[in-house]
């Protein structure tokens, strides 16, 4: 799963990078509470981008359940010092081996799916779809 915080840049621009960094730490804590197993991984790639690696999921629906938890967890306001911040997240989901045979390809597919989520209005998730699937073939 590839996650991008929606409208994070205005937080840094208006409140400063210190507040932005504290917000990122709080986001990471909430994300960790959303993964079901200790073998699952939550990592920050940089900026406002995170990755969640769900090890050994049995079906794509397992990823949907986690995505729902993430959307709910990040919809609650964050209190950082005197500031109450509302953010949302766009999530792209890629599943092994359908969307990639290795980590690099899975990340690329999940990143593409995340942009589908942003285009769909943000604060949602989308699965990766190949060009053929998108065309309905």
The gist of it:
This protein is α+β, with helices and mostly antiparallel strands. It has five helices and seven strands.
Characterise the protein shown here.
The chain is globular and about 45 Å long. It has a 5-stranded mixed sheet. A two-stranded antiparallel sheet has the order 4-5. The protein has 5 helices and 7 strands, in the order βααββαβββαβα. It starts with a strand and ends with a helix. Helix 4 links the parallel strand 6 (88-93) and strand 7 (125-127). With 137 residues, the protein is α+β, with helices and mostly antiparallel strands. It has helices spanning 9-15, 17-32, 60-75, 103-119, 131-134, and strands spanning 2-6, 41-46, 49-53, 78-80, 83-85, 88-93, 125-127. The protein has a single domain, classed as Alpha-Beta Plaits (2-Layer Sandwich).
The span between the termini is 25 Å
* Largest beta sheet: strand ordering: 2-3-1-6-7
Give the overall silhouette.
Answer: globular
CATH class: Alpha Beta
Q: What is the count of structural domains?
A: 1
Task: List segments where confidence is low: pLDDT < 50 over at least 5 consecutive residues.
Answer: 132-137
Secondary structure: elements and pairs:
Blueprint: E1 2-6, H1 9-15, H2 17-32, E2 41-46, E3 49-53, H3 60-75, E4 78-80, E5 83-85, E6 88-93, H4 103-119, E7 125-127, H5 131-134
Parallel strand pairs: 6-7
Antiparallel strand pairs: 1-3, 1-6, 2-3, 4-5
Helix pairs in contact: 1-2
């Amino acid at each position: 799963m590839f996650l991008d915080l929606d409208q994070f840049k205005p937080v840094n621009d208006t409140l400063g990078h210190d507040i932005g960094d504290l917000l990122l730490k709080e986001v990471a804590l909430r994300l960790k509470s959303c993964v079901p197993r200790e073998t699952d991984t939550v990592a920050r790639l940089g900026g406002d981008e995170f990755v969640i690696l769900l090890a050994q999921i049995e079906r794509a629906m397992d990823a949907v359940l986690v995505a729902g938890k993430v959307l709910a967890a990040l919809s609650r306001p964050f209190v950082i010092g005197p500031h109450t911040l509302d953010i949302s997240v766009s999530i792209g989901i890629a599943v092994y081996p359908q969307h990639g045979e290795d980590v690099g390809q899975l990340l690329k597919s999940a990143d593409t799916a995340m942009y589908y989520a942003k285009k769909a209005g943000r604060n949602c998730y989308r699965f990766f779809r190949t060009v053929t699937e998108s065309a309905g073939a």
